[in-house]
Design a protein that fits this description.
single chain; about 220 residues; mainly alpha; Methane Monooxygenase Hydroxylase, Chain G, domain 1; about 85% helix
């Protein structure tokens, strides 16, 4: 009975991750393709993510109360509760990006989006891989995700430095540059949260608490 409930709970978290992934994708595709409807879609999806978050939290609480799980089953439920909150935070960041993207479409900003596109692609791949690692309890993939976070950090730093050099000679672009930097910072934060998901998977699989630095060191 509990086993079936846990399978259903994992399925719910995966469904939540797909909604959040769609939010992140739509928030940057709306900017790159100059499509307002994609940005509006993000708001619709956020409502579903918020509803799903409450459902998963209630299911986790009910399982603990009814079955008094132990060992790995308890770890799984506790980590799904934590992952659920992480995914909801990712959704909030994607919504913030959609709002900044809307501003940039209304106030065109003459700046290359190549680095931002690379950052978005890497961030989404990290989220996808973190969920795949969760599904299969793949510890090595989880550790690789944590290492990939450095790629996103470097792109975020590169974008910030580029925006600073662009704004200095043209002060009127400051507000637009702020929104570009907001998108970059949010993607960097989403990548950090994907790393947290990977760390939680390691705890589910092995019962050991790992943090980012520990995972990278273990990969070396």
């Amino acid at each position: 009975m509990l086993k079936d409930k846990l399978v259903a709970l994992k399925k719910s978290l995966i469904e939540q991750s797909l909604l959040v992934q769609k939010m992140i994708e739509s928030s940057f595709l709306g900017l790159f393709q100059k499509e307002i409807k994609l940005l509006e879609k993000v708001l619709e999806l956020e409502l579903l993510v918020n509803q799903k978050e409450i459902e998963i939290e209630m299911d986790c609480t009910a399982l603990i109360a009814c079955f008094h799980p132990e060992a790995k089953d308890l770890r799984l439920i506790l980590m799904i509760m934590k992952m659920n909150l992480i995914l909801e935070k990712m959704g909030n960041l994607a919504l913030s990006n959609a709002k900044s993207a809307r501003f940039l479409l209304q106030h065109p900003y003459n700046s290359s989006l190549i680095d931002l596109a690379s950052m978005a692609k890497e961030t989404i791949n990290m989220l996808k891989n973190s969920i795949n690692a969760f599904i299969t309890e793949d510890v090595m993939l989880s550790k690789q995700i944590c290492k990939n976070d450095d790629v996103v950090d470097r792109l975020n730093s590169k974008i910030f430095k580029k925006l600073v050099t662009e704004v200095i000679p043209t002060p009127p672009t400051i507000e637009s540059a702020f929104h570009m930097n907001n998108i970059s910072k949010n993607l960097e934060r989403i990548a950090d949260l994907a790393t947290n998901l990977a760390e939680d998977t390691v705890f589910i699989a092995q019962g050991q608490i790992f943090k980012h630095n520990s995972l990278i060191k273990d990969l070396a």
